[in-house]
Specification:
Jelly Rolls; twelve-stranded mixed beta sheet
Length: about 400
Amino acid sequence: MLNKQFLNIIFLLSTGLCNAQYIDTVYLNNGSFEEIPRNGGEFRIPISGWYDCGALRFPSETPPDIHPGGFWENGVSANHGKTYIGMVVRDNDSYEGVGQRLTSVLEKGKCYEFSVSLAQSPKYWSQSKLTNDKANYIRPSVLRVWGGNGFCTTKELLAESSAINHEEWKTYNFTLKPKEEYRYILVEAYYKTPVILPYNGHILLDNLSHFYQIDCNKEIAQTTDKKLQNLPPHKRARVEDAVKKSTNVSQPNKPNEEPKKDLATNEAPKQDTQKKKILEELDIQKIKAGSKIEIKNLFFKADSSNFSSSSIDVLNEIVSFLNSHNNIKVEIGGHTNGLCEAKYCDILSTARAKSVYDYLINQGIQAERMAYIGHGKRKKIAPDTTPQGRTKNQRVELRVISV
């Protein structure tokens, strides 16, 4: 009987992918989405090899469409094989996704790479779920790939594309290193975050490859600008910044050379050996279920859910804390001052809480450990009569759900 290793060699040779960097392969079933073209709204038939996760989470919604078939005035041809899948995000905060059980596990701590072809049609007409009017679902959306331990579970976000807004097919390459062992994946369309209100958009997906195990050291050494472009903007900026800093490290004093002195005191400057913690309250010895911690140094643009780059440090403190204490669950609560209409305050506070939630998700914190909510202007902690009071009211807090 042919063993697994020999079968891997035969497969790689037959597909032209024979490369010494591939150690093992985790296979996908029907990654090219070969099916009979059909409108998901008319034919609620599962895609061969895939489970409809959108229907599981949003039972009243329809499954993804199989293109090309002229549906929604989409005229984009297949990139690989005869058909491909189209997945939408909707203005009623629902979105489509499909999942499957892998032939073998993605192993904890090992590195893998995969590729996928993505595009967007200039026309994707359907019906708005909020107004029932005809709507063109063409807002840019992203692709997210999750690892899990059951159908349609979102245990760890393994990969996320940039927003897709091009009609021609482009191949996106990803590398991943699971923090746990996963036998299931979920592939879904999602909104470009941060976003204040859900919207109508779509992505076209074809030729999703198998997961090829690679040498982790080679993956780090071979990181390229092309791979960086596949990262979400905030992650890409952090990687590029880290690269710049690594090439601009101040050199130590040469042997027998005196350290430079402060001209004002004539003394050598003291070295800051440890960065001061921003959230002192984020201490496992102090917190308990019900504890509330205001996220300091979190700055948003006016009337926006986009936080500034100077907010990354405090958000990464939260990421580090949650990674160190896997038994803790939190709720992210957004608040505004009282100078806006109640409905707008609710929308803005929810969007800001979700912006923090999405950042933590993108950094690998499991979705089931978090929730987000917008309190609007209902829970003010200071009068709105002064700028200082309004600033205090406009905040985002962590509430500890369980320890």
